[in-house]
Amino acid sequence: MIDFVRNVRLWFSPAEVRDDGETPDYRFSLANERTFLAWLRTALALIGGGFAVDQFLPDLRWGWRVGLALALLASGALCALRAVNHWVRCERAMRRGEDLPVSRFPALLGVVVAGVAVVMVVVVLLGWEA
User: Fold this and answer.
1) Which helix (H) or strand (E) holds 25?
2) Burial of residue 116, with CB atoms counted within 10 A of its CB: 0-12 exposed, 13-18 middle, 19 or more buried
3) How does residue 128 score in pLDDT terms, banded at 50, 70 and 90?
4) CA separation for the pair 99, 65 (Å, rounded)
5) Which segments of the chain does DSSP mark as H helices, in order?
6) pLDDT per residue over 30-47, tens digit each?
7) Residue 55, CB half-sphere, CA atoms under 13 Å: how many?
8) Cβ atoms of 9 and 92 closer than 8 Å
9) Structure pTM?
10) Cα-flanking dihedrals φ and ψ of residue 94, to 5°?
11) Which of 7, 119, 11, 24 is nearest to 66 (CA)?
12) pLDDT score of 130
């Protein structure tokens, strides 16, 4: 928990990350940044999908529409937060010469997105009013 709190503090002062260990090959730092940006694109897509479900499926029952929209919006928010945390953790690990951190978050995100997709398939097969 203490490491998480330290990482959150580093989100807002990335210059402090430089105090940790030695500077890695810049190509690794740039690759870490590209990964961060890919996570942000994923977060934006999930948020856009949440708004799309809410705005463009008015015939869908309110509970289903709001539930699916909130699942996508929450997934997008978590994905954006996770992107920053993962960037900091990877940058610190590279500077320390440690193995890159592993995470269960990609699997969790995949399961949530797949769950929403399955629900959407059922909704489409059964019709909007079902």
Assistant:
1) none
2) buried
3) low
4) 42
5) 2-11, 26-56, 62-96, 105-126
6) 999 999 999 999 999 999
7) 6
8) no
9) 0.82
10) -65, -40
11) 119
12) 47
